[in-house]
């Protein structure tokens, strides 16, 4: 059993995510104990998270959230933690929000003297190196962005300017470290870790198709866990859609299912609640 309760893990991770996203998007505002963020049409940074963890969410706050996204011409998306106050889900339902999908949050506690390098083999295919990205090295940053975002866009599709820019800001963020996996010197995969508050999160990882199923993703997870321990944190989280390879790889390295959260969206503009 974990030392932290599932509710404690959720509060640490949801607050980390809310503050972290607010720091890398174009515009963000605090709301109901969390943050709502906007980064331009087509960006993954257009969502609100962390609401309702400190108590009830008022109708006025939710109306302000709806207006925030309506003024910017994007569909509002709210990530709802199962430990949020019940008024949040009720208020969203009253305003025409519906559940679109679920996201699982996996967690792993680290012992102070644990060596995460022992979790996964660094042998891999040929000579595998996990290199930490220097945010000041423009050429290295560009290679990392191209590789690390490859799993989040259609095969062979060019990276969009909005995705490139927000990923660049993530790499430059002082709380983040990004890593590139190289096989015989060739870029094969990449991923990032943010360390903030009491915990950390591993995110944004991709491995190129021809290098998959060779232990590279597990090696990237192990290296980022090593960074978490180096920075004195004892909790790391990974968010993933249910059943995808990231979830399976994380569980092989000791992560456990901490909680699932709902992703709520609102396409229509229903009448205001009575």
Keywords:
alpha+beta; 274 residues; globular; 7 helices
How far apart the termini lie comes to 45 Å
Give the helix proportion (percent range).
Answer: 25-40%
How many helices does DSSP assign? Answer: 7
Order of helices and strands: HEEEHEHEEHHEEEHEHE
Concise summary:
By secondary structure, the protein is of the alpha+beta class. Helices cover 31% and strands 28% of the residues.
List the helices and strands and how they pair.
Blueprint: H1 6-24, E1 27-31, E2 34-38, E3 48-49, H2 59-70, E4 77-80, H3 86-94, E5 98-109, E6 128-132, H4 138-148, H5 161-172, E7 176-183, E8 186-196, E9 199-207, H6 216-230, E10 235-240, H7 245-252, E11 256-265
Parallel strand pairs: 3-4, 9-10
Antiparallel strand pairs: 1-2, 2-3, 4-11, 5-10, 5-11, 6-7, 7-8, 8-9
Helix pairs in contact: 4-5
Describe the structure.
- The protein has 274 residues and is α+β, with helices and mostly antiparallel strands.
- The protein has helices at residues 6-24, 59-70, 86-94, 138-148, 161-172, 216-230, 245-252, and strands spanning 27-31, 34-38, 48-49, 77-80, 98-109, 128-132, 176-183, 186-196, 199-207, 235-240, 256-265.
- It has an eleven-stranded mixed beta sheet, sandwiched between helices.
- The radius of gyration is 19 Å and the shape is globular.
- The mean pLDDT is 93.
